[in-house]
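U., I forgot to send this yesterday:
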Amino acid sequence: MTEPIEMDCRLDRRAFRQALDHSERRGLRLVLPLARWAVILAVAALMLKADWGLPPEAAMVFVLGAAIWAGMDRILHAQARAAAIDEALRQQAQDGGYRLRFGPEGLRHEGRTRSITGTWDSYLGAEPAPGATAVRMAGIMIWILDEHLPDGLNPEAFRAALDRWKAAG
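Result:
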């Protein structure tokens, strides 16, 4: 495909949440909380087994404190996500949605108040997601709902076109 692909996009709160969920599933974001709890439980076990002169209740207080800390961490994380989504919706409303153009020369992401241009050198890949495609460029992820694709273009063909343009580079 050599013809550029153009589309108008506007995301709602659900789509922004889905994009954040997809982004957070990458890398160590799932492993780190599990590792954190493994360390906490190991320290609690040491407190019970080692002769540190601590009463057994100290390990329980330690685990309880860790659980409270983890709960507060989740609450703060949820608040930060909500604030990020609110800001993204505000900026999108100010921008009037955005227009995307993918072509042999790269990507153009354009709104009323801002635009982003990227070459295929900065393209890192396109990942399928339920009802969407996550286009990763250096430093950004662009969330494209399947419903925003031009008529007659399915998500697999869209991702294949991006990969061909990257390869032709």
